[in-house]
């Protein structure tokens, strides 16, 4: 059976972009594979050095989101990164197998450094997070990581590390990692029409947003900037409202009719947005209700992650003993 590892940095509650990009996929995969889901609190610290409270608070928010969308702790193993020190230990071993120049060339890291304007003063911790990530994956010997296309360089680097580890220590303990881009992984634009929904761009609709907040956000959504009067023909391409209807509206025939009407002229943005509000709230309402139920007992929620962590702990210790055996570090 496939062994999957995925995870999220707990830097905020999860949003609709996560939902279509990974959460729905995880709910499906948990029936077909052994799935580990890691809350990457240590990785979150790499770009929140001075804000540990934010990370700590969001561990629980992310947990609530997982359970509310239907990730089942009987089928998936949810765990907390910082509680598995073996991951950090394995990271230290991997760090000898990669050059600083190679780390600086990782395209995902390069893009992030440019976005955050930290090229000249990047910390060692940030620069090496792909190595840490390779340790996350290999500590449970995962052979499959569902990722967005922008994370492919991470998997490539992890496979290089595995190869180098195998070659250097004459062993073959780790499986090759396959990156699997989820079929449902359509990338959701932000409400501002920008390429990607993201917390840092401030253009997200959260799974925990109330119906009113969702309505307000949809009303602000980017449409066709040249569609000024209702009678004008409008564009449905690059129109965020229609992009969302394509993904979320179960009545696709109606969407096709709305599009035709909009393109011809005579259909105002407000009507289309009203339809989208209805559709999104239908998706979000059951999630919201479950989220509120779970939030009644946060200790129990945390316990779910702690129990998952116990299971991972046993696997991690086994992996580390094989690693140390290969390096001849057994005393
Ligand atoms: N980098 C991922 C994020 O930013 C989180 C993560 C950490 C992860 N380690 C991982 C994802 C290993 C997949 C595999 O959300």
Protein architecture, described:
This protein is mainly alpha-helical and 331 residues long. It has two domains: 3-188 and 298-326, HUPs (Rossmann fold, 3-Layer(aba) Sandwich); 211-292, Tyrosyl-Transfer RNA Synthetase (Orthogonal Bundle). It has 14 helices and five strands. The chain has helices spanning 16-29, 41-45, 52-69, 85-95, 100-105, 107-116, 124-127, 129-139, 152-169, 211-219, 240-248, 252-264, 269-295, 298-327, and strands spanning 3-8, 34-39, 76-80, 144-146, 178-180. Strands 1-2-3 form a three-stranded parallel sheet. It has a two-stranded parallel sheet with strand order 4-5. Helix 11 crosses helix 13 (269-295). The protein is elongated, with a radius of gyration of 22 Å. The mean pLDDT is 95. Bound molecules: tryptophan. Residues 5-9, 40, 43, 133, 136-137, 145 line the site of tryptophan.
Q: Indicate the multimeric state.
A: single chain
**Ends distance:** 34 Å
CATH topology of the largest domain: Rossmann fold
* Number of structural domains: 2
């Amino acid at each position: 059976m496939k062994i999957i590892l995925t995870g999220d940095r707990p830097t905020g509650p999860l949003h609709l972009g996560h939902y279509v990009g990974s959460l729905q996929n995880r709910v499906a995969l948990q029936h077909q594979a052994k799935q580990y889901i890691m809350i990457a609190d240590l990785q979150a610290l790499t770009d929140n050095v001075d804000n540990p409270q934010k990370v700590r608070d969001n561990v629980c928010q992310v947990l609530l989101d997982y359970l509310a969308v239907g990730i089942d702790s009987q089928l998936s193993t949810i765990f907390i990164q910082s509680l598995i020190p073996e991951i950090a230990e394995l990271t230290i071993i991997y760090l000898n197998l990669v050059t600083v120049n190679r780390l600086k060339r990782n395209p995902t890291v390069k893009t992030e450094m440019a976005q955050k304007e930290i090229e000249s003063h990047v910390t060692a911790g940030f620069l090496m997070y792909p190595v840490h990530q390779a340790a996350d994956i290999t500590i449970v010997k995962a052979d499959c990581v569902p990722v967005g296309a922008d994370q492919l360089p991470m998997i490539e680097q992890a496979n290089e590390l595995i190869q180098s580890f195998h070659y250097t220590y004459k062993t073959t303990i780790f499986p090759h990692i396959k990156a699997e881009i989820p079929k449902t992984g359509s990338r959701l634009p932000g409400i501002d029409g920008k390429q990607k929904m993201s917390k840092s761009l401030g253009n997200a609709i959260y799974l925990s947003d109330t119906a009113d907040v969702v309505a307000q956000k949809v009303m602000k959504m980017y449409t066709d900037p040249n569609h000024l009067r209702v009678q004008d023909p409008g564009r449905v391409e690059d129109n965020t409202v229609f992009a969302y209807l394509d993904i979320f509206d179960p009545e696709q025939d109606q969407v096709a009719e709305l599009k035709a009407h909009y393109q011809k002229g005579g259909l105002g943005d407000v009507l289309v947005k009203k339809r989208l509000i209805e559709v999104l709230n239908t998706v979000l309402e059951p999630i919201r209700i479950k989220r509120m139920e779970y939030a009644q007992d946060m200790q129990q929620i945390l316990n779910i992650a702690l129990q998952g962590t116990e299971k991972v702990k046993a696997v991690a210790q086994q992996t580390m003993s094989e690693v140390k055996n290969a390096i001849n570090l057994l005393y």
